[in-house]
């Protein structure tokens, strides 16, 4: 039986539920925030489950439940290792590079002065992104050195190890639509 793991029902999850029903695929809806993940124990919500589809909005929650089900021997789409790669922009960029797939010029720096030097070498605009995150949160299109200095200073003041990782990409001019 298929388990569809979720933390919020969005239109995509509704479509998955409807399609599984229409195709006669036996499935359970498993609300992850209510799931007690005790290692070595299979909760009643997972009785009869032979495979799971992870659909949590929260990357942290989704990865945790995927690891738990994997420990129980239940295959999960996507595997935790895939989720870890996709949840980290630097790991994703490295995987794309390893497989020869095109992407914007990308760099990771840990020093603001080195980041400024690289931005000057590449030319403006450049894009500074958090290594972890989605939906364009905390992304900055940097158009000149003054903006770069201000943004890098803000990141330094914010503290935390994630703000010390400076993930830079060349700016790609869009042909009137979003490119992801």
UniProtKB/TrEMBL annotation:
The lineage of its organism: Bacteria, Thermotogati, Deinococcota, Deinococci, Thermales. Signal peptide: none annotated. This is RimK family alpha-L-glutamate ligase. NCBIfam families: rimK_fam. Residues 93-172 form the ATP-grasp domain. The keyword Ligase applies. GO terms for biological process: SOS response. Coiled coil: none annotated. GO terms for molecular function: ATP binding; metal ion binding; ribosomal S6-glutamic acid ligase activity. One of its GO terms (cellular component) is cytoplasm. PROSITE patterns: ATP_GRASP. It comes from Thermus tengchongensis. Keywords: ATP-binding, Ligase, Metal-binding, Nucleotide-binding. Pfam families: LysX_preATP_grasp, RimK. It comes from the Bacteria.
